[in-house]
Amino acid sequence: MRIVLLGAPGSGKGTQAKLLVERLGVPQISTGDLLRAAVAAQSPLGLKAKAAMDAGELVSDDIVLGMIRERIAQADAKAGFILDGFPRNSAQATALDTLLAELNQDIDRAIHIQVPFDELLKRLTGRRTCTQCGALYNVYFSPPKQDGVCDRCGGALMQRDDDNEQTISRRLRVYEDQTQPLIEYYERQGKLATVSGSGEVTEILRRIIEALSV
Ligand code: AMP
């Protein structure tokens, strides 16, 4: 099963992708996570990507497509994957189709997770991530038992560098301008399903599973 998760920053793509991994047994591929790992490792690629990420702009297609090509070729992705945060513009979407065609593969379904604008803002400003295991929290909606500490592994929680107000509004605008057109792109291919991303995490997962008919 090859799935694209579409949705604004803060729509819950990462949370749902992690749950789908358990459910479907295929890996999550998040270009945001791959880029953040490259930045943390201070690799040449990470150094190139950092300025765009800090500004809330898209990292160049060359960099992101190179990462995707490498990741999709790995053994665990042979039977499928869940793309989270990729593709992010039309050029990436067509490049992905070409890349998959070369491998005799295809996207099965694009799930658009729809969340009202006001809710996105609160989700992004309240978001915290565990530095050790990657677990996600929100100080408004799903706080950890102890402030700043992961319930699962005891790791320290942090706020992403780009989850500040100025960068958030830029990221939301970039989404509207560059990523939203992909909804139509996948609709034209007959692959799109839109689900509401409001409500309980497990209920949203149920909607996605239903839309995938698995
Ligand atoms: P995310 O974690 O998906 O919200 O991504 C965080 C940041 O990484 C974005 O604001 C972009 O700067 C960069 N990024 C992630 N995925 C992509 C992509 N597919 N194309 C370009 N930039 C990306």
Write a brief caption for the model.
Its EC number is 2.7.4.3. The chain has 214 residues and is of the alpha/beta class.
Can you walk through the features of this model?
Keywords: ATP-binding, Cytoplasm, Kinase, Metal-binding, Nucleotide biosynthesis, Nucleotide-binding, Transferase, Zinc. InterPro entries: Adenyl_kin_sub, Adenylat/UMP-CMP_kin, Adenylat_kinase_CS, Adenylate_kinase_lid-dom, P-loop_NTPase. Residues 126-163 are annotated as: LID. Its EC number is 2.7.4.3. One of its GO terms (cellular component) is cytoplasm. The protein has a five-stranded parallel beta sheet with strand order 2-3-1-4-8, with helices on both faces. It has a three-stranded antiparallel beta sheet with strand order 6-5-7. It contains nine helices and eight strands. The protein has one domain (2-27, 74-212): P-loop containing nucleotide triphosphate hydrolases (Rossmann fold), CATH 3.40.50. The N and C termini lie close together (10 Å). The mean pLDDT is 95. It is of the alpha/beta class and 214 residues long. The longest helix is centred in the C-terminal third of the chain and has 15 residues, at 165-179. The structure holds adenosine monophosphate. Adenosine monophosphate binds at residues 9, 31-32, 35, 52-53, 56-59, 64, 85-86, 88, 92, 162, 171.
